[in-house]
């Protein structure tokens, strides 16, 4: 299905503004780094160990701060 450019532009215009909030106003569990780590771990833990070998190695050797 091909969507007309004008329709795509309108849909993009209608999207809400998204901002990244930093600092103490955000629960620590929702900080971007924590969220991204959880997302990556969930993806890697849910796939066979023969997939994403480079990502698994990077996760294993990551320096966690």
Number of strands: 0
Largest sheet: none
Query: How much beta, percentage-wise?
Result: under 5%
**Run of helices and strands:** HHH
Q: What Rg do the Cα atoms give?
A: 18 Å
Structural class: mainly alpha
The shape is: flat
Q: In terms of per-residue confidence, which ranges show pLDDT below 50 for 5 or more consecutive residues? A: none
In helices, the fraction of residues equals 40-55%
What oligomeric state best describes the polypeptide chains here?
Answer: single chain
Gap from first CA to last CA: 46 Å
The tally of helices reads: 3
Question: What is the mean predicted local confidence, pLDDT?
Answer: 88
Give a summary of the structure in a few sentences.
With 65 residues, this protein is mostly helical.
Could you describe the 3D structure shown?
The protein has helices at 5-14, 32-45, 53-61. With 65 residues, it is an all-alpha fold. It is flat and about 45 Å long. The mean pLDDT is 88.
Spell out the blueprint of helices and strands.
Elements: H1 5-14, H2 32-45, H3 53-61
Short key terms for the protein model shown above:
mainly alpha; 51% helix
